[in-house]
Amino acid sequence: MKAAEQETKSGVDHLSRKTTDIFALAARMMAMDDAAWAKHANPLSVYSRMSILPLMSLAVMSRIWLGWYALAPIALVILWTWWNPRAFGPPKTTDSWAAHGTFGERVFLNRANISIPSHHSRWAMGLGTVSGVGAVPWIYGLWSLDYGMCLFGLALMVGGKLWFVDRMVWLYQDMKNTDPTYTNWQR
Q1: Could you give the C-alpha distances from 62 to 67, 79, 106, in angstroms and in order?
Q2: Alpha-carbon Rg of the chain, whole angstroms?
Q3: What is d(CA 114, CA 92) in angstroms, rounded to the nearest whole number?
Q4: In angstroms, rounded to a whole number, what is the distance separating the alpha carbons of residues 158 and 147?
Q5: Least crowded by CB within 10 Å, which of 15, 33, 154, 173?
Q6: What is the pLDDT of residues 26-57, one digit of tens each?
């Protein structure tokens, strides 16, 4: 823990400031405020969020049966993507892997204000890249109706995201005592 604090105080998280912050852009698009983050810490929110990419796959592939009417299920999945972090109430307790994962995401998104250890940044960027690379076969599979490629892309994207959340749990554990705001998220 002391190494993480020293690394944080020395400001070694240079990697995240050199490139466009796609993570912060995604958070801004979701319009997450403190109330939404508190609700998103509910394990039901975290686990049900994993349904988004498979549902989007089905919605896009429904063009086979629905034609242009497939835009309706696609719109519903987009709405679910935005509503999901707000759909469930705040958890009674935040002693869960899912809650700590969302807390870690918040810490990660705040890294411009409070530096995080560089190894956490590298892992987050790497796992984001894995998910991004998974988008290529997924999109190709959706376009060409190649179910194998679609599933391969889904596995990379969902696997990368789950591993990312797991790393965010670790980040939160390392950082929760560095700022009172982080500590106050727990109950």
Answers
A1: 7, 17, 35
A2: 18
A3: 28
A4: 16
A5: 33
A6: 656 666 677 888 888 899 999 999 999 999 99
Q: What is the 3-state secondary structure (H, E, C) of 123-171?
A: HHHHHHHHHHHHHHHHHHHHHHCCHHHHHHHHHHHHHHHHHHHHHHHHH
Average pLDDT by stretches of 10, the chain with 187 residues: 46 47 61 78 92 97 96 97 90 93 91 89 91 96 97 97 95 91 87
Single-letter amino acid, residue 1: M
Q: Mapped to the 3 state alphabet, what secondary structure does the chain carry?
A: CHHHHHHHHCCCCCHHHHCCCHHHHHHHHHCCCHHHHHHHCCHHHHHHHCCHHHHHHHHHHCHHHHHHHHHHHHHHHHHHHHHHHHHCCCCCCCCCHHHHHHHHHHHHHCCCCCCCCHHHHHHHHHHHHHHHHHHHHHHHHHHHCCHHHHHHHHHHHHHHHHHHHHHHHHHHHHHCCCCHHHHHCCC
Give the length of the chain.
Answer: 187
Maximum distance among all Cα pairs of the chain, rounded to whole angstroms: 58
